[in-house]
Structures are given as structure tokens and as C-alpha cells.
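[Automated response] Your request has been received and processed.

Submitted sequence:
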Amino acid sequence: MITLSLQLLPIPDDYKKTGAIPRGSIAYIVLKGSSLTGEIPVKSGKEKHRFTTLSSMCASSAEVVWEADRIIQELRIIKKQAKQFFEKEEEKRKLEE
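Generated structure:
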């Protein structure tokens, strides 16, 4: 069984280390899973992880909040759909008995 988790993937602006053009720090809301292939490879310590992004690139705290609220709303809709689905399935099961 794969365990998935949501997390914030902060990417600090490291132009001082790399000499690149400053772009500002960014962040993504990502789905992390041990066997997922995602869009963003990240090395954390000795381990390499791949993440599937659930948000567009966020350049501020306000953008992360907006994306998180969007995801929360989508999860609320999924919860409602799941409740309706399983209630209908339970009714069908009762009628078949």
C-alpha cells in the first residue's frame, strides 16, 4: 500500500549560491508518495524524492493560501460526492436483499 501525503515544497531563492538571476522564493503544494513519479525531483539529505504538484507555482504566502483553499474546496466536493455515492450503494444493497 502506498501512503501519500500533502506537503508544502518551499524552494528558496538561491541566486547568491548559483549566480543565477534572482527570481524570488517560490513554493508548491505537492503530493508525496514513495513510488510516485512526479514533476519535481528534489534531493533531501541522502534520499531523492519526486513530487506531483497540486498547485501552480506560488511566489507568496497569499498565493499558497489561495491554492490551499482551492484544494480544500475540491476535497469538500469529493467528500460530498463520496457520501452520496455510498448512500446510493447502500440503498441498492438494501433493495437487493
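Summary generated for your ticket: The chain has two helices and four strands. The first strand starts at residue 4 and ends at 11.
If you did not submit this request, please reply to this message.
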